[in-house]
Amino acid sequence: MAQTDPLKKVRRNLSSLGARIYRDATAHTYGQEYYYVSIHDGVIVKSELGMKAKHSSGGRPFIEEVTGDDLYRKTNRWMNLSRVCDREKDLYEEIITDPITGEVVHECIEPLSKHTGHGTAEHKEKAKA
User: Fold this and answer.
1) CB neighbours (10 Å) of residue 12?
2) Which of 9, 44, 106, 118 lies in the 20 to 30 Å Cα band around 36?
3) pLDDT tens digits, residue range 21-33?
């Protein structure tokens, strides 16, 4: 019978994870072999910061701002987002840029009163129809 490597399946599974397997050639004790497994991975951190300002009397925020990393759903890629919604100045501004090329992917600067049919307003318009 041919002798099979008892670690073959383990090696295959570990190497599919990107692991490196090292055999320690110096450590032999009572016929046992020693192996070292090295697995490395990385983490990419994305962040987004939001701010709302209200008057002391309460009510809806008079300004809302969001800036940071955002997943752009049209391309399914991470982009830089800068959004300002200023109710006092009647201003809506949204700029989405590609962090790699610096290209402006989307830009919308318009009066807030004209910015309709998006988000929850989109669902309200469909309900009226």
Assistant:
1) 9
2) 44
3) 777 766 666 667 7
